Amino acid sequence: MSKTDDSKASNPAERRTDWAEDRTILANERTFAAWMRTGMACVGVALGLKAVFGSTEHPLIAKAVAELFIVTAIIIFGSAARRSYLAQKRIDEHDTNAQSHIGMIVTAASLTFGAMAAGVILWLL
User: Which end of the chain is more exposed for a tag (fewer CB within 10 A), N or C?
Assistant: First the structure.
């Protein structure tokens, strides 16, 4: 343990602040996961709209509305990755290790690619 670690251990207020920052890191990761779920829900709504309204007299309208949800999902994925990165940048880690920003980018990019592929498939059907 370094001298600075010893001084923090003897100062309960600093230790509580460190733990609060760690909780904020974990809350940021939960928020990122919630945004990912919201984006996936948009993709699910798009698939549902296509399934329910695909055989209507106006299939282009059903496809357009489904694509709107796909685009919304893509925006959500990108926004979640960006906001998570900005929050992580402002917080110091203490007893917890934050998920890497690269991992969050990979997750968001994978879901974005999947949403785009679903959008293409919906348009082709």
Answer: N
